[in-house]
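User: Is it possible to get a 3D structure for a protein together with its bound compound? The compound here is glycyl-adenosine-5'-phosphate. I've pasted both below.
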Amino acid sequence: MPDTKVTLDQIVSLSKRRGFIFQSSEIYGGLGACWDYGPLGVELKQNIKNCWWDFMVRSREDVVGIDGSILMHPEVWVASGHVAGFHDPLVDCRESKNRYRFDQMLAYRHPSRHDLPLFAFMEDNPSPAEAKIKKMAKGAGLEEFEVIPLPNIAEEDQARVIGPDATQPDTLTKPRQFNLMFKTHVGAVEETASVVYLRPETAQAIFVNFKNVQQTTRMKVPFGIAQIGKAFRNEIVTKAFIFRSREFEQMEMQFFIPPSEDEKWYEYWREVRMNYYVNQIGIPRDTLQWAPHPPDKLAHYAKAAADITFLYPMGWQEIEGIHNRGDFDLTQHSKHSGKDMSYRDPETNQTFTPKVIETSAGVDRSVLMALCSAYHEIEEVGEDHKRETRTVLKFHPNIAPVSVSVFPLSKKDELVDPSKRLENELRGDGLRTSFDVTGSIGKRYRRQDEIGTPFCITYDFDSIKDQSVTIRHRDTMEQERVAIDRVSEILRRKIREWSQA
Ligand code: GAP
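Assistant: Yes, that's possible. Here is the predicted structure of the complex:
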């Protein structure tokens, strides 16, 4: 198993220190599970979205894009099944006042002593329950315990359950279903206005526009419609930084296909999407895994589904879902709107409701994955001969907030002016640049390493005479001297080749 030495605390601290991500409304004490992206974070996030859009839409003939509105007709969410079924089971603890996802709770119980308490815990945090068991078992010969999902515990045993953060039994409420959609109102008078929802997924704007897009573009099935946009879920359990937020962004693509071709296209998109993370975003393959959904865990719309999971500091977690949605959504919208959502194949003259393969990725989870994957700490002897730890973010150049930083060796105009000109030229050629004149060159390298800039360029006194500069490579720390008029071409070639490597 690959190691993930980075901790979430290191990522949170770097994100704040260097201006990637801040807590939302921080000066007011923050708002749970909402985040603001700072200057570097927004660049990283934008690059991730651009990469996806270029790969999924611009480089393909068979996918087009849309940008749907966040507020939609409320009937959309009745048709999609979200009003009736987009629930999480929730329990409250009367003692600790904490709230838990019932389906993620487990309990330790003694295999034979059914008079003893059962110790509930969240699946990712068994230690408080273990501490309680140890205390009870001490000297009493009660070391044996088995783990059982809390929903599987018999009704008559529920009163013996001690909650994850409680000391006494019988403090957990009965589970109740909690709809994850945020509600708001359209119109000036709240009481009389109709309820609308903040969309919990971007996909539905694609389904309801299937006919509009197909007819205006004259795309032929099979083809896809892609969208990047905000989605909102009133999540019960929110932790792990930006991993599970209440406001987040999705990158979704619905690929409409003839009914008999779903298995073929499901396999096709699984392969395309996994390769994308490795080649375009630079995520090592051994830190990515497939997690197929067992039939009893499938979402209400899915015939088959598998998640691409990444090895985050908190374990393997979903980054993207590939779903075979069948014709569920188009059929539902046809029924609820009364509008025909079928398609007539111009070659065979057959009319059918297309099936759909969906690829659904999270932007914020991609940002977190990129940060965790890129994070490296390197021990070395610093300029003052002391051992020090250097942080390097080894971002793929496709997503690095800055692709190249230009340094004049000194603050003298004879160096600053031409190096500024070089920076402007590189920016004009589409590279993301920065300029730094402060501190020693070593310090400037370290500042750029910490934000993941793959290339640094130093303009020194020799540059005036030989019209050459030094390119320093972040990952190898190698330096090469190149002619100024070739810098742009060389860097752009290296970035291209990075993707093909
Ligand atoms: N249209 C299908 C759909 O929405 P999903 O598995 O519920 O499927 C897709 O969500 C992706 O959206 C997930 O793989 C994840 O990357 C992202 N996502 C879902 N809920 C999220 C949340 N609360 N915070 C951040 N990202 C989330």
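The chain has a mean pLDDT of 94. Residues 201, 203, 233, 235, 244-245, 248, 250, 252, 318-321, 358, 360-362, 364-365 surround glycyl-adenosine-5'-phosphate (CB under 6 Å).
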